Amino acid sequence: MATAKPMILVADDYPAMLRLISRVLEVEGYRVVTASDGDGVLKLVSENKPLALVVLGIDDVELPSTEICCRLRQLSDVPVIILSGRRKESDAVNALNAGADEYIRKPFTIEEFVARVKAVLRHNELATNLVESPRAAG
Description:
The protein is α/β, with parallel strands linked by helices. Helix content is about 45%, strand content about 20%. The radius of gyration is 15 Å and the shape is globular. It starts with 6 loop residues before the first strand and ends in a 6-residue tail after the last helix.
């Protein structure tokens, strides 16, 4: 029996970026669900979909990616990558402190994005395996 491909939630408030990122992930073999705002992200996460990753690229002043990430952390431990055009180091630090697992500054290459997605998924899988099968005492 084939295992289901991991599902990734992609959220961006720019429709062209949302389509691009979604298509890239689909070509890489992932299942993709999308949202165009923070409320959509929180709704999809609260529905307990089996998400492997959330990619946030929302620069909404009312509900930016870092705030969405904070709220998401109250619902789930799903890994989060934030995509942002903000260049200051403090923006990246704030995002990581809000619960993001990775922060990617725009512009970025598709190759870098895919590599970072795979790295976050790999790290999460390793962490999950450690928790599920701790070393035997002894």
